[in-house]
């Protein structure tokens, strides 16, 4: 039988010279209870926990992953959630660093191109691009976005997301739809910055269609959907299509309001993990990222609702005014970012 991750960690701990106690491995960073749970395969360690354990055992995180039966996808999803929470809470540099590191680790462990590993790596790189863009580094953002787009199956780049299926063409599996939406969001931000507004509109429209076709219920997808609608509204306003912009922003505000109401379930999830953790508050070491991401999304959605309500009212006033009295569209900003 193959050695599990927990068994490998325990073996390496006991084979150390001198052998390490649970307390010595935990140091002042982790609790002894958490290390014990990891060794018994009762919990999957987070990326931060894995790094600490590897350092104490004198091996690389990749060596632990290669030698054990860790749920690599769960580890990557946790890192993605944690990075997204950091981005939404206003720390794009930390978000980019964490997501980029996990993308590299995922590649080293599995190649990171096919199946769930490929999707997770594309999502991580799309987040890196968004975070770099938010941090004011469009060059690195463009590089990460290009890497993410290269991982998508055929006919899913920004130029072909909406291309009809034809002779020799193929439609990507539905499971890639949400990944495509995140990559489209990042690509659209860069296209808009370059002044390629038609390309940005096409890319964001495709991303929006991917989310709506999936029927995904997680608050993040609602937040991203509202973000896409808002940005599309800005592009339509820039063309003088105020009524269309008003309707798009109103839709975005309605969706964001629904997302903002999911705070309660997220708090319940945090409380549940807290009860099951090895020590009070310890769930942050291995299980909190998913709940933290939901909380960060709902907080961002609350801010978005306030902003979009004001935007919808402004556009309503403009739409109701005589065309001659409307402000020039040249004054519309194309650089707004919702973070």
Automatic annotation (TrEMBL):
Q: Where is this region: Disordered?
A: 319-339
According to the UniProt entry, which residue ranges have a biased composition of type Low complexity? 319-333
Q: Which segments constitute the HTH cro/C1-type domain?
A: 9-64
Q: Which GO terms describe its molecular function?
A: DNA binding
Q: Which InterPro entries match?
A: Cro/C1-type_HTH, Lambda_DNA-bd_dom_sf
* Gene3D superfamilies with a match to the protein in the record: lambda repressor-like DNA-binding domains
- Name this protein carries in UniProt: HTH cro/C1-type domain-containing protein
* The organism of origin for this protein: uncultured Chloroflexota bacterium
